[in-house]
Specification:
The chain has 385 residues and is α/β, with parallel strands linked by helices. The chain is built from 13 helices and 13 strands.
Length: 385
Amino acid sequence: MLECQRHRFQLPSDLHYLNCAYMAPLAREVEAAGREGMARRRDPSTIVSDDFFDQADALRGRFARLIGGSDPRRVAIVPAVSYGIATAARNVEISSGQNIVILGEQFPSNVYVWMRKAKENGAELRTVERPSTGDPSPGATWNERLLDAIDGDTAVVATPIVHWADGTRFDVAAVGRRTREVGAAFVIDGTQSIGAMPFDVEEVAPDALVVAGYKTLFGPYQSGLAWFGERFDGGVPLEEPWAARESSELFVAGRLDYVQEYRPAAARYDVGERSNQIQLPMLNAALDMVLEWQPERVQEYCATLLQPFEDAFREEGFDLEDRMWRGAHLFGLRSRRGLDADATAAALRRARVFVSVRGTAIRVAPQVYNDSSDLEALAATLRAL
């Protein structure tokens, strides 16, 4: 059983930070890696050719291990989810009359690009809306509707693993099987789940998986990682950075030979200046930490933390999705008593309990730095309301 990891962070002792879905706090070792990277820039003569590749390739290996991938060359380094999703969208062919399936109230980074793609190609953007609040098991119903929406005319299915607003969990393995049956591309935003929930990229077999680095991966802002499957081998990147080309290490050494070939698999999709001497060491340090914790144990830790309070939340008039259809590390509370979500969040902030409001849900996102006192503070404040 994973023990509380608060000692690895520098959160104020009176702060109940239940908001990793907003932004993870920097751990001490991640901050130290950033400081060391900044110190290296004091004397650029110490930064040699290998430094433009070693940290990047190490990062690919760590991320591949985290998601159960056997080939780290399938990992691209991206600055944001929107960048990785746009890369996938650029390389998916969609014909007039086909459809793109997304979820209602999905995060914009995995929506806007599909809106444009549908409009440009005469395709239908098919949105599977959240079931009504009266549904006794909205997660189960939402999953059923998602599978039903995928048909022979579907070109792309673009979903998260858990919904960013309330943690509703989607059976992405089942969605993957369905997309393969109809020949559609499957593009996953794993931002709110990878690192905090078990995920096997070989089993789910998405065509693209994109993850922001600053939430459940505990890395710096403006950093991210993407996994691209065989469907995207030979695709066209959004830009043409020098390091994405075969033998690019020779260019650093002073050779000015231009080559047509890209580096194998997903490296062609790397963002320009991906070899950031500050951010890459930070994200590598963060992934070392997450790999040490293990996603299964993170999920178990959060579930154990939450379990004693589930009935209390319901007794205070809040709906909470069934365990099977939500993440323990991210869940939504919806008031049955008509409490205003924004006013409730403001009251929580005054009590030094930090959560977010997303739509009609009070979004709670505990992590390994939380303990029972944080959930007790949340429950006590809701009780007082």
